[in-house]
Amino acid sequence: MTASGPPPRNPFLLPGSGATPLAPLCPWKVPAHRDHYVPIGDSAVQHAKFTKWLASKVEGGLVLVAGGSGTGKTAVLNACVRLLVEEPVRPGATVHVVDLSSALRSVSMTVSQRRTAVCWEILDVVRREKLVADDVLASLEAIVAKPDHFHVALSSALTGPALVLAVLLPPVEDLVAEAVGYAESAHPWIFFFTESAYLAGEQLNTVDRLGASTVVLETRELGPGDLRTFVSSRLDHPVEPGAFPKINDSTVTRLSTTFKTIGQAQGRLYRIYENRLRKADRYGNEDWVTFDDVMSDDGAQLIEPLPPPVEAPAHVRWLTDVPTKEDLFRREALATVLSQRLRETRDTEPDTSLLMHVDGAWGSGKSTLLELLAAKLTTDGFTVVRFDAWQQSRLSVPWWSLLTGLRLAVLKQRTWTRPWLHVCEALARARHSGAPFAVALVVLSLLSAGAWFGVSRLLGTGVAAPDAVKVIGAAVPAVVLLWSAARLTSRVLMWRSAGGARLFEQSDSNPAARIVGHFAWLLRRSRKPVVFFVDDLDRCPGEYVVDLLDSVQTLVRDYPGRAERKPKAASFVVAADGAWLRSAYAAAHPTADSSAGSIGYRFADKLFQFTIPMPGLSTTDREVFLRHLLAIDAAEPRTEEIAEASSRVRAAAGHERGILQVIDSISDAGVRDVVARVAAVEISKAPARADAEHALAKFASLLSGNPREIKLFLNTYGMLRAIRTLEGNTVETDVLALWSIVRVRWPAIADHLQSVPESVRALKDPRWFAADFPEDLRTAIHDEQLRTVVLHPVGGPLTPIAIRRCCGSL
Fold first, then answer.
1. Residue 242 in this model has a pLDDT that exceeds 60
2. 310 in a domain, yes or no?
3. String of DSSP letters for 460-528
4. KAP NTPase domain spans which residues (predicted)?
5. pLDDT band at residue 692, thresholds of 50, 70 and 90?
6. Starting from the edge strand earliest in sequence, which strands make up the sheet with 355-359, in order?
7. Are the beta carbons of 378 and 339 closer than 8 angstroms?
């Protein structure tokens, strides 16, 4: 490298390429690329062909560029788009480029499905960029699932605002029908641009014969002299001065017989120059790049500079699946939201039990969330009773395990008075045990009195001391036997053991009332509000799942005492996969109407006031977690920006829309993720919820007259809003409200739409797309009330993109 003079540069690095140095030329995005086109591989002929076609007064059409891999198809296509942008076919029109070239590449679809998906993508851009009026947008949404009708309506909509759409489609696969479909959809003011490495020969002729609205351009491999033209253009390009090695004619000649496409040549030459530059190895104007250099390992792959060695931890630790108390996935903010709700219920409705369902698949972090929530509730003055359902399912009946857990938790609240509470609890259990205990007590009392009377008579008759000792020695075993019998009787008849609990269930005519009575007695003796944490229920057999949840329902909802004696309420947080719970209820009630598992949904809706879906992981979350596992220091947080945005969130407290607008205004993903935690907590507080609920009043006509359903709708919206905000997802209020109504009134439909959002088209046009729904749900697509919600003008119609946003998958 020269000691002075112009700085070194890579002549094969395109301007503005940034992190994608080998990306094709794209002059409609990067104007500087316009001067880097080189007339090779018949590209000049193809450019002239497109220019002539565009000048033929065509108003819309399909541009298909075909050729082998690496022959420059994308560069030719982008040059055509640039020409349309700079010289629109419609005087005074604005050309809007819709780049879908990278969309749908990893999705397996039929031609019909791909065309429909493209329509949805175009509609989303039209909505986001506000290219048409709202009423026009609504009419387009109504027919988006019919590509042929959609493109006609879109063409008509573009006439008024003087717009031209240039749609860059995903590459066409080896089905000529797809290209034909796009050609037939190319109406005025819509230009489709696509490429294909598969279509050739007669297939291309078929497309080319479609008429004046279609033009087919072809790229080919490098011909004689093409590589020399390309290399000379790059080495002699009139850009800012720079120093770099040269390539002589003999090397270019040898490379011409090696490289067949421009992509191969560009890739190898960029990499050899970049590696030489990074290593400062023979990189000056007097240096040369030889054929052997280009074909060496340095030309085959880019050599990244080695980072400084990472200091390894003192030991390598095994990675376990044990729940952690460390918050790596923003779960602490969700724990704060749940603890707020529990505190509010304790303070405003102390006699009300709150039942929450944390819904998520195995490994989604439910147990970790419970650990974080337990720490907050303990600090807030709650007693947390942990219940491992999987362990307890092998021991005893559910109610006995719950009752035992509560008794131990209440006893732990005391120190000096704990023995007295033991005695009081035993007497209360005896009272609640009823007749069996009374009979046992009478029998044991009589036996004990008889033994005492016999010993007293013997001692009172003047029996000699040795004989008295013999008598007492014989009586001691009898007393011990009586004491053991009493202990055994108490354990069996007073259900202090698992076996006793089973016997009690079988022998008592009304065991539920007595169990609930003792549960209430224990709650009244608790010095703190009680919350049960039920974990690992989705690892239990279905029969136990139903028994446990029925026991919870009985213990917290069916207290038989008088109103003035009603105890402090116990709340439950159940962490389990919702699908497992529903299938358990469906199996337990096979004769009930269980189409699409509806019986399971009904039981879940009756039992739980809140269902909390586990939030998804953002890119930042995954990066932080991986760094934690690898013991790599995290990037420095942007504390000033985070503090400023967090203060704006708190300033907007009490106004849902204002909080969401703050999140929308944050462009940095890392800052947004951190501030979203603050926003989720603020948006879940009572003032913000009241503000949102005022906006939800307009949807009352879409709900049934069931009071539970109305409450469930408000709870569902509030929880979904908190979780989506935690994810940084600011889905519109009206859209989320419609989705919440579908989730509450038609949960099975909601689950299907969440899995296959595109199937929403069946609700818009049941005649054509009924097959998008499974057979057991197909009758629901004709439900006029459901269709009214999905197609509602306020917030609707619900589109696949809207559904993905509501579900946190976009």
1. yes
2. no
3. HTT--HHHHHHHHHHHHHHHHHHHHHHHHHHHHHTT-SHHHHHHHHHH-SSHHHHHHHHHHHHHHH-SS
4. 348-722
5. confident
6. 383-388, 530-535, 570-576, 355-359, 610-613
7. no
Q: Which helix (H) or strand (E) holds 190?
A: strand 190-196
Say if CB 331 and CB 368 are below 8 A apart: yes
Indicate if the alpha-carbon torsion angle 636, 640, 643, 648 is positive or negative: negative
Longest dimension (CA), the chain: 138
H-run or E-run covering 191: strand 190-196
CB-count burial class (<10 Å; 0-12, 13-18, 19+) for 498: middle
Range of weakest confidence among 175-184, 264-273, 591-600, 646-655: 591-600
Tell which of 218, 245, 266 closes a domain. Answer: 218
Return the structure tokens found at 348.
């405003």
Please check whether residues 348 and 231 belong to one and the same domain: no
> How is 727-773 classified by DSSP, letter by letter?
TT----HHHHHHHHHHHHH-HHHHHHHHH-GGGGHHHH-HHHHGGGS
For residues 86 and 233, give the distance between their C-alpha atoms in angstroms, rounded to a whole number.
25
Q: For residue 13, is it within any domain?
A: no
User: What is the CATH classification number for the domain harbouring 562?
Assistant: 3.40.50.300
Note whether 126 and 208 are same-domain residues: yes
Q: What's at 259, amino acid-wise? A: F
399 contact partners, CB below 8 Å, separation of at least 6? 501, 515, 551, 554, 555
User: In this structure, are 623 and 575 located in the same domain?
Assistant: no
Which residue, among 412, 425, 423, has the nearest Cα to 385 in the 3D structure?
Answer: 412
Contact partners, residue 439, CB within 8 Å, separation at least 6: none
Strands 355-359 and 383-388: unpaired
C-alpha 264/C-alpha 230 separation (Å) is: 12
| pLDDT tens digits, one per residue of 395-449 | 677 877 888 888 888 888 887 877 777 777 777 666 656 545 444 554 555 555 5
pLDDT in tens, 57-113: 777 888 888 888 778 888 899 999 999 888 877 777 788 888 887 766 545 566 777
Q: Confidence band (pLDDT; 50, 70, 90) for 597?
A: very low
Kindly state whether residues 65 and 124 are assigned to the same domain: yes
Has residue 730 been placed in a domain? yes
Q: Are residues 594 and 630 in the same domain?
A: no
662: helix, strand or coil: helix
User: Which of 284-288, 450-454, 664-668 has the highest average model confidence (pLDDT)?
Assistant: 284-288
Residue 781 lies in a domain: yes
Closest CA to 689 of 662, 661, 663, 713: 713
Q: Identify the H or E element spanning 587.
A: helix 578-588
Exposed / middle / buried, residue 314 (Cβ in 10 Å: 0-12, 13-18, 19+):
exposed
Q: Which amino acid appears at position 171 of this protein?
A: P
pLDDT above 70 covers a percentage of the chain that reads 75
Same domain, residue pair 653 and 735: yes
Q: Enter the pTM of the model.
A: 0.58
The verdict on 678 and 633 lying in the same domain is yes
Question: 3-state class of 577 per DSSP?
Answer: coil
The pLDDT assigned to 492 comes to 43
Residue 268, domain extent? 226-300
Residue that terminates a domain, selected from 156, 189, 218 = 218
pLDDT at 487 over 50: no
Is the separation of the CB atoms in 666 and 638 below 8 Å?
A: no
What lies within 8 Å, CB to CB, of 687 at 6+ separation is 653, 654
Q: What is the model's pLDDT at position 596?
A: 47
- Clarify whether residues 248 and 386 are in a common domain: no
Per the structure, the count of domains in the chain is: 4
Q: Degrees (nearest 5) of the Cα angle 281, 282, 284?
A: 125
Q: Is residue 536 a contact partner of residue 492, using CB atoms and an 8 Å limit?
A: no
